[in-house]
Amino acid sequence: MATANRSTRQWQSLDRDHFLHPFTNFSELNAKGSRIITSAHGAYIEDTDGNRYLDGMSGLWCVNIGYGREELAEVANAQMRELPFYNAFFQTAHPPAIELARRLAQIAPGDLNHVFFTGSGSEANDTVVRTVRLYWSLLGQADKRVIISRTNAYHGSTMAGASLGGMQFMHAQGGLPIPDIVHIGQPHWFKDGRDEDPGEFGLRMARELEKKIDELGEHRVAAFIAEPIQGAGGVVIPPDTYWPEIRRICRERQILLVVDEVICGFGRTGHWFGSDYYELEPDLMPIAKGLSSGYLPIGGVMVSDRVSRVLTEEGGEYAHGFTYSGHPVCCAVANANIGILEREGIIDNVRERTAPYLQKRWRELADHPLVGEARGLGFLGALELVADKATGAPFDKPGKTGLACREHAFDNGLVMRAVGDTMIIAPPLILDESQIDELVGKARKSLDDTMASTA
Ligand code: PXG
Questions:
Q1: Binding site membership of 165 for ligand 1 (Cβ less than 6 Å)
Q2: Are the CB atoms for 75 and 84 separated by under 8 Å?
């Protein structure tokens, strides 16, 4: 092991003293102490006390090909020896970035044949804001600046990413959103539309986009951004009517469609991209996470021929970029990751075999007294925990039951995320049927334990 061999207590104490964690209530964590994860293999992670957990969250929606892939370590090692870094700013490039760009153009939907590399999904969405505004201004429509997003969307944690996101508690902490970003409603049938037919609800929510464009004036609206399925917002799967209607509105109006594939990309839905599943042709498509299966940080924005042509033919210098845009080691690892997804037929296997099995087993949890709805698609799943199963009424103290369930899941050897009182899974795409049985069994036991402990 490369790090010092300390006890769990020692790690927790050093952690408390020096490490400010992301999205964490520091005082709560300090009172309790972190779980210290030391190693991982396949779909399992291990902590300093030797506990082993089935990782139902793929790290953080990213380790699509599973942990412990020697091939990626070897590729990183070789690339570090050959060329650990060089920039792409001053008319230079290197083979790993060019090769990855070529490969992404092949697998991306429609005419998304160009890519701007970033270090993360947040930087990708900052790049989206810059790019769509530049696009319209190069076409002589500088007033077309407003980007329409949705409440409860997640698009990252930088100033622009958090602004595009529709999380009020994030806006409250940073004086956000930045100007010219507005939000419409989300297609969350269980939370917002249960007294309505799901198809009607989906159409109504999609038409909020049309209404918002009319309200602002089409000449002011640059783009609409959305995740195919909202991930961090609670695995919100829109009714079947939603995306076709959004597609129609985008076709009829002069606005760009930005589909954020940071979570849905690279096989999560059983297709390369969520856009393939919903038959979308985005103008811009942010990617990250599964691009490298989380082995190294890398993201990017896929750009269509239409947008790229304007940037190339009408633009001067594009005044935007990051030191690590197209980092050679990250690109080499992403290339190898895509190679593994292809070679092992992982996405086909998810679509044809394991996702249908996971979805069948996951939906069995709907009979549990705590569960108001069990939904999912591909290798994504959610359980709505409710106070009253018959009416779907939520708990008086939101979030308490979800948190209890997450802790019971850990105790039962399963990582399952809580978004308020919604339990979430997004497991590695390599899970086989017996591991799916294990996941669902542990989830059920955790629901039982939650019932017993919160009753
Ligand atoms: N877009 C989407 C759709 C995401 O899910 C980002 C952009 C930002 O990516 P980076 O690489 O900057 O984190 C994300 C990230 C959670 C959680 O709690 C989800 C994300 C990140 C952190 C936590 O579910 N998604």
A1: no
A2: no
Residue range 134-157, pLDDT digits in tens? 999 999 999 999 999 999 999 999
Atom of ligand 1 nearest to the CA of 158: 12
How many helical (H) and strand (E) elements, i.e. helices and strands, does the chain have? 18, 15
Contact 62 CB / ligand 1 (< 6 Å): no
Query: Strand 146-150's sheet: what is its strand order?
Result: 112-118, 299-304, 284-287, 256-259, 221-226, 146-150, 181-184
Q: Which residue, among 108, 209, 225, 104, has the nearest Cα to 161 in the 3D structure?
A: 225
In the chain, the percentage of residues whose pLDDT exceeds 70 is 99
Whether 126 is in the pocket of ligand 1, judged by its Cβ within 6 Å, is no
pLDDT digits (tens, 9 = 90+) for 371-420: 999 999 999 999 999 999 999 999 999 999 999 999 999 999 999 999 99
- pTM of the predicted protein model: 0.98
Q: To the nearest whole number, what is the mean pLDDT of the chain?
A: 97
Residue minimizing CA distance to atom 17 of ligand 1: 232
Cα distance between residue 264 and residue 379, in whole Å: 10
Among protein residues, the one with the nearest Cα to ligand 1's atom 10 is 121
The reported pLDDT for the residue numbered 3 is 65
Domains detected in the chain: 35-65+345-454 (3.90.1150.10), 71-343 (3.40.640.10)
Q: Kindly state if the Cβ of 297 falls inside 6 Å of ligand 1.
A: no
Q: Which is the closest atom of ligand 1 to the Cα of 424?
A: 24
